[in-house]
Amino acid sequence: MAELYRRFGSGLGTLFLALVATWLAGMVLAPNLMMVDYAFRPNLLPAEIGGPRDVYSLDNILYLANESVHRAIFFKTVWASALVAFLTLVVCYPLAYWLAQRATPNHTAVVLLALTIPFWINEVLRTLAWYILLAFRGPLNAVLLALGIIDQPMRWYGDAGVLAGMVYAYILFMLFPIYNAIESLDRSQIEAARDLGASIWRTHWRVVIPHAKAGIATGCVFTFMLAAGSYVAPALLGAPGSRWFTEIIYNWFFEGGDWNRGAAYALVLLVLCLTVVLVTLRIARVNLTDVAK
Amino acid sequence: MSQSVELHHIGMAFGQTRAVSDVSFTVGGGEFFSILGPSGCGKTTILRMIAGFLEPTEGTILIGGRDMRGLGPDQRLTAMIFQSLALFPLMPVWENIAFGLEARGVAKRTRKAKAEELLKLVALEGLGNRMPGELSGGQRQRVAIARALAVEPQVLLLDEPLSALDLKLRQRMRAELRALQKRTGVTFIYITHDQSEALAMSDRVAVMSAGVLQQVGAPRELYDNPATPFVARFVGETNAIPGKVTAIDDGIATIESAYGPLRGRAGNGLSVSMAAKLYVRPEALEQRPDGDGYLRAAIERIDFEGAFALAHGRLPDGSMLIASIPSTELAGAPSIGAPADFSFRPANAVVLPDG
Predict the structure, then answer these.
(1) What is the pTM of this model?
(2) Which CATH class is domain B237-353?
(3) Is A28 inside any structural domain?
């Protein structure tokens, strides 16, 4: 703060601070406070708002607790998001290790570019690409049929489709933190482990993964939050049996016309995500400042 | 528990770049052997080939008489001490030391006992539960040595492990390494660019330059009888005086230099009428105008180094001459700006062909 004033003088410094404060207050704080406010009030006709029935209560949250289908979808969303984070980790860790320790600088540049290019396209369009790939008469089924792995086309939409779409969508959020972490590992530590007779597994388990722990935790936290809050992948690649909690929230807002209940559902999701994130970080002994890096 | 290491016509090329060409030498079991050379001379490449991190493109490496081709570093009876030491920072010291045993599936209690034993060997008793980051540079050094010795290697490979330490500590660690080598009897192959380190510690030294082996010999031999101009210049300080060989007589060569005829021992491959240089060490120059060849130089400065002082003089044609004067004789040293005469015994100079 003092640095800001010293560098830009009191006039510009104050202006910058005011802009950031306005942005935080208007774009982050206000909508969240309104969501909390909505969540604890009943859904009333416009005429009744401010009237005797407009009182704070836990009704909207209790509704979720007592509605078994929504509750099941909520918990399914939580563990499925954890599964997405885990699968993304499994996909990204070997790649991140290769990029950070084994690849030549040229290979690293080409692969990172190739991984980044798809992200120049909008998330909806990227998910639509998976929609085409996984279609009943789509390329994936055609290839599997041609290879003789399956003898009739599979229906991929549903849990498998949602998982695939999400793992793909969040690869970079997992890859970069782990890549950064592994890159800072002195290669001679890996060589020393090997020289002392350690297997590849032991080298990773005892040397590389402990070093990359902060990066892995950061990637998992990002991916979990994004997956739990994802809407496009479940909406496009899902099936009625693979509904995501965000879809229920969407329905309350735009189809049920009950913003208050939607806000309550969103609040529960937010609280849960925060809890998972903080617990994960505590387990990995990483603090939020490390994540912000 | 020590084995010999033999290199037969080892070559290594990285794409178009040649790192090592046709290097052969044999390190005896239990020997303290150094490979000395400037950075980029291929010495680290040789060490990494012996360790198994690199496969030579030509030649064979035998350890204990066994061909090492196709064996990785985890399958060789060597252990390496890295320049950065490469201690595992997230493991306590004892786990670092016992890591090689852990990889071999040794039970935890045995590992801990062995780590204690090694901590005692390197005089770090009681520090087993510290983290490497809590130790001093010299202590970390000893942990790295203990970790390498834990796997009971036949050959210990050391890649400039002392280069990060300050001078006093480095000198102490030299003595400790030397003593440890004698005590354990393990073959040591030590890489360094510091010639005083190599001369002080080793039984024998190999000098490398630009991927080519220049000379292998005991420290004294390298210093007194350099085989090539590179060795003469790189090992210790020397003065090189160019000239043409006019006579070789009973092992003593005479060259006609810009300062008159000078005599020194004839090196390998020297013959009459060759262009050659006479190499004479600063400490071989004595301040007296007689003898069979003397050099007159105008003294420009005298650098006091402690035990001795180095007098930098300019010869008539403008090249430099460096003479060492023992501190006890500084009273009789020439004054700055004045000319001084230096001569040397032919037995203390060597004449080597140019090239």
Answers:
(1) 0.79
(2) mainly beta
(3) no
